[in-house]
Every structure is written in structure tokens, then in C-alpha cells.
Design brief:
Shape: globular
Strand content: 35-45%
Strand order of the largest sheet: 1-2-3-4-5-6-7-8
Largest sheet: 8 strands, antiparallel, barrel
Distance between the termini: 53 Å
Radius of gyration: 20 Å
Order of helices and strands: HEEEEEEEE
């Protein structure tokens, strides 16, 4: 009887470890200090401001690629700006909000993703541009073209 009980306990522990390992390999989930998971982070995001179309892609090296076009251009045309080696920043203090950060020259481009509830008036994305001194140059709401 004790052998069966120990064997059952061992099997349950083994399956739990396998399931936890498989969950960590899913690239769309990111741990939140062990307390839960942030919302899914898509591999590709296409958003639009009043003046720009922006595409963010996760690269094989885990970094992010920023590409932008004028709002009237097609995404199949050459981008007007490309920034490589962007990062995904998880904001622990804001209930699952996160942002992508890209640096080019004197400017820091942040694309914020807000975790929304039903009827939330805040747009799901925003483009914030700061200079390297931290002064805000622009803060524009974005609509989702592809998420």
C-alpha cells in the first residue's frame, strides 16, 4: 500500500515538472515574479498612429525589430525607419502592461501595450518618443492593424 502511494506521488510530481517545463518553453508567456503570467506577447504587432504605420517583430535572437512607414505607405514598400535590437520591458507595477523599447541616435522609442478591460477608454497601444535626457517628444495613441 505504501509503495503504491509513493509511486503515485512520484508520478504526480514528475508530470507537474514536465508541465511546468513545457509552459516555460512557450515563448508567448513571461513570468511575473512567479505570481502569474503577463498577457500574451505577440511575435508580430502592426499598429497605426495618425502619421505612421509601425511593425514590431520578435527576432530569432530574442530582440525586437522596429520598422515604420508613413501612414499612406504600404507595408510591402521600404520602411522609412528601421531600428534593431529592441527590448521587451515588463512593467511589474502596472497589472501586465509592457512596452517595447528601441534606441536610435538621441531618441528612445517606446511602444506601450496596455492591458485593457471591457469598455476601457485608453487605446491598447501608444507610441512614446523621448530624447536621451528623458524629455518627452511625442505621445500618440495607436490603433491595432494586426496583433
Amino acid at each position: 500500500m505504501i509503495k503504491k502511494l509513493l509511486l503515485g506521488t512520484l508520478c504526480i510530481a514528475q508530470f507537474s515538472l514536465i508541465a511546468a517545463h513545457d509552459l516555460k518553453q512557450i515563448s508567448n508567456f513571461t513570468e511575473d515574479n512567479g505570481t502569474g503570467y503577463f498577457q500574451n506577447v505577440p511575435k508580430t504587432v502592426i499598429i497605426k498612429t495618425k502619421k505612421l504605420k509601425i511593425k514590431i517583430d520578435k527576432q530569432e535572437n530574442g530582440k525586437y525589430l522596429y520598422q515604420s512607414w508613413s501612414v499612406n505607405s504600404k507595408l510591402t514598400s521600404k520602411p522609412s525607419m528601421i531600428i534593431k535590437n529592441g527590448n521587451l520591458i515588463l512593467n511589474d507595477s502596472t497589472e501586465g502592461h509592457y512596452y517595447y523599447e528601441f534606441k536610435k541616435g538621441r531618441y528612445v522609442y517606446q511602444i506601450w501595450r496596455y492591458n485593457q478591460g471591457a469598455g476601457d477608454p485608453v487605446p491598447p497601444y501608444a507610441l512614446i518618443i523621448n530624447d536621451t535626457s528623458g524629455n518627452q517628444i511625442s505621445n500618440e495613441p495607436c490603433i491595432i492593424l494586426k496583433n
